[in-house]
Amino acid sequence: MPDLPIYQQPSHQPANAPRHLDAQALAAALSRPIVFVDLETTGADGTRDRITEIGVVEVGPDGIVEWDTLIDPGIGIPPFIQQLTGITDDMVRGRPSFESLAETLGERLQGKLFVAHNARFDYGFLKNEFRRVGVTFRADVLCTLRLSRSLFPSAARHGLDALIARFELQPKGRHRALADAELLWQFWQKVHELYTIDLVESAVQSLIKRASLPAGLEETALDDVPDTPGVYLFYGDQDMPLYIGKSIHLRQRIGAHFSGDHRATLEMRLARTVRRVEWRETGGETGALLLEAHLIKTMQPLHNQMLRQNAALYAWELPPGLSAPILRSDRNTDFSRHPNLYGAFPSRASAQARLAELAQTHQLCQVALAQEKTARRGLPCFARQLHRCLGACTGDESLAAHRERAVTALANLAIQPWPFAGAVAWREQHGPKAWWHVLEDWCYLGSVPTLAEAPGLLSSPARFDLDTYQILAPRLPALLAGAVALEAVRRFELQPPAAPRPETQPQTTSPTAAPHRRKPPSPDQQTLSFFER
């Protein structure tokens, strides 16, 4: 679709001539109407929370019209939000529902340039509300926060309070919908006092094209992202790690986070709080999986709950000669070397629950598994009384036969011992770039571009890592075929020995070392950040 200009360009006036117009003349010069919109809501979650107030300032060739209404959200307004906006449950009780206003509001917004501050929030909320009543709402969207950043790049802050102070805007109130929408119209007029219409038009058209990019990111933030395998990191205020993900198509995946953020709670939160994007290319999908798991454990981003480091792991051991399995912990058992282990589980309770589930599925005896006791030997276990045990407890099944069935039941949980004598390097390549992944005892130690650099990652002891194991175990044939033992690399190095280190030496970090992790913000701090706009 060709760009639709927002201003008429009279043929008798040069396009670059300054045009400092008053409010009415500025409105009359528009070739398409603009709606300055602000919402107040019950919270920051676009999928769960609801709108409580809508304010619209419509500006166009026919003049300037203001419209606002309170809305009954159908849910309670949290005390924190009531204090922030001044809108209480009593004020919205009995007011129109969004469904009853949807047709009128849609007609008021249809075909107009939708302008809001941190527009992704307001536009996303409206799209969700319209969707709930079966209406598809679309509009060209302009974010005034991004417009401020584009036109005034030297300014440190671009929130609405910062604009009020910088341009001496006259607020009629704060955190009420119509008052905030009217501030955006004031800002629009101030912009046209400082810049020509052509310059503003150019900036607006550029921002509309980039509308899917979150307001907190620079316009060029994703320009250099390659469409290759790798890991991406989202950072918030004070460089707080927010989220870490991976993809075989980095550019496409990062963009997808911000194209549908009004539908998903996580995506909307990320779009509201992200301030910086970082990415790290890998040699392929395996490298991306390994690096993602490693970085999540070391950096502990706010919105990543999976792949976190477990305090301890548990596994069942069923060695030859024993009929009952023994529960082992990785605190005193090396899961990477110990044979006959089955698991692993994040807790003792989950290990016991899984064994009980297998016993029920395979009609195993809880007494023979040492998970249940009877008053005396030979008495049936509880499952035997229900005909769900084949009788190892009563002697109707031999312990040897029962053990064989237990091994079969546990087979899918078997932990493969580390198949090498020590550390190895494994090469993965995507296009012209290749990386060597350094691995030991089912632990990922990092990646380097050349094999000669691989021994440099062996400075710390390796510990069995369940996520690394789950990534590599299905790839074991390829790992066995392509791995290079690093002891051999060390043995045949032809470099002179390193000079002795001085007693004091600056601290260095490995290629995969994580920066200092900041304390996550409290829930109230996170909520407040959504509404400081």
Automatic annotation (TrEMBL):
Its EC number is 2.7.7.7. It holds the Pfam family GIY-YIG. GO terms for cellular component: excinuclease repair complex. It catalyses: DNA(n) + a 2'-deoxyribonucleoside 5'-triphosphate = DNA(n+1) + diphosphate. Gene3D superfamilies: GIY-YIG endonuclease, Ribonuclease H-like superfamily/Ribonuclease H. DNA polymerase III contains a core (composed of alpha, epsilon and theta chains) that associates with a tau subunit. This core dimerizes to form the POLIII' complex. PolIII' associates with the gamma complex (composed of gamma, delta, delta', psi and chi chains) and with the beta chain to form the complete DNA polymerase III complex. NCBIfam families: dnaq (TIGR00573). This is Excinuclease cho. It comes from Cupriavidus basilensis. The lineage of its organism: Bacteria, Pseudomonadati, Pseudomonadota, Betaproteobacteria, Burkholderiales.
